[in-house]
Amino acid sequence: MMKGKRSSEQSQMGAIMDMKESLGPAAVFPLGESNDAYAAYFSGRSHLAPLAEVGGVSASNVTFELGCRNNWHVHHGGGQILLVTGGRGYYQEWGRPARELAPGDAVSIPPETKHWHGAAPDSWFSHVAISVPAEGAWNEWLEPVGDEEYGALS
Questions:
Q1: Whether pLDDT at 2 is above 80
Q2: Which ranges of the chain would DSSP assign to H, the alpha helix?
């Protein structure tokens, strides 16, 4: 039994080391808790760490494990700003090619724009997501990003 516990701990430590290596030194915000509340809208595992909220503006650190991405979605009424802090990932608007993202990149997502974002297949990915408030704003979660479409990204 002790051997099994040690193996599990070693596996967990390896995953943490892979995460830190993948995200790099720019990832200064906490990993957060498993993003179970939104798991139905993600392919893979993500983590959420709320950072601040005032006057309807909220900022959260979102961390995507290797290959994790969210479904296509639309922010109705208000938009979203992404500030990339670690790893390598992608952002794509419907009908446009995907854009590779790296630490220091910023993405301004206007309201009513169908899009997705997430990690590259071989990297963890982290960004601060800032919601742009608007009266009656809401998010519409749509279909997953297809494996074939996602797999074609390099």
A1: no
A2: 2-23, 147-151
Which is nearest to 120 in space by CA: 96, 143, 152, 74? 152
Please answer whether residues 126 and 87 qualify as being in contact, where contact means their C-beta atoms are separated by less than 8 angstroms.
yes
Q: What is the pLDDT of residues 51-75, one digit of tens each?
A: 999 999 999 999 999 999 999 999 9
* Summary mean pLDDT of the chain: 90
Strands (E), the chain: 33-34, 42-43, 46-54, 57-64, 69-70, 73-76, 80-87, 89-93, 99-101, 106-109, 115-119, 125-131, 138-141
- pTM of the predicted structure, to 2 decimals: 0.86
- How far apart are alpha carbons 22 and 73 in whole angstroms? 26
Name 110's Cβ contacts closer than 8 Å, sequence gap at least 6: 79
Rounded CA-CA distance 130/146 in Å is 26
Q: Which residue type sits at 90?
A: Y
Pairing outcome for strands 115-119 and 89-93: antiparallel
Task: Find out whether 23 and 86 touch, Cβ atoms under 8 Å.
Answer: yes
Whole-angstrom Cα distance, residue 62 to residue 67? 14
Q: Which of 23-27, 111-115, 122-126 has the least mean pLDDT?
A: 23-27
